[in-house]
Amino acid sequence: MAKKRKSIIAYNEDGQPVMEVFSLELQGDQLVMDGKALDSMRMDVYISIDEIAQGMDIVLTKDVFKFAFKLPGALLRYRKKKQQMAKED
User: Fold this and answer.
1) Are residues 33 and 74 in the same domain?
2) 52 DSSP assignment
3) Residue of 22, 26, 37, 45 with fewest CB within 10 Å of its CB?
4) Distance of alpha carbon 32 from alpha carbon 47, whole angstroms
């Protein structure tokens, strides 16, 4: 059985994958996202620190912080699921 590649998948409202992110890497002053759009177009996306600075009003919102505060619970669920899967193997 092939090992599933770790990734983050973004879905549209119909549940179809629209973006899969395989890695985020800092290269100089840019964040490089290795991803695949619409399940076919693999690409590197470059985001400069200046672009992030200009878009801070998009990033620093109550909704983003509420979402971020849910991350510890999601990590615990992921860890438990991973441990359960290891026991079953």
Assistant:
1) no
2) H
3) 26
4) 6
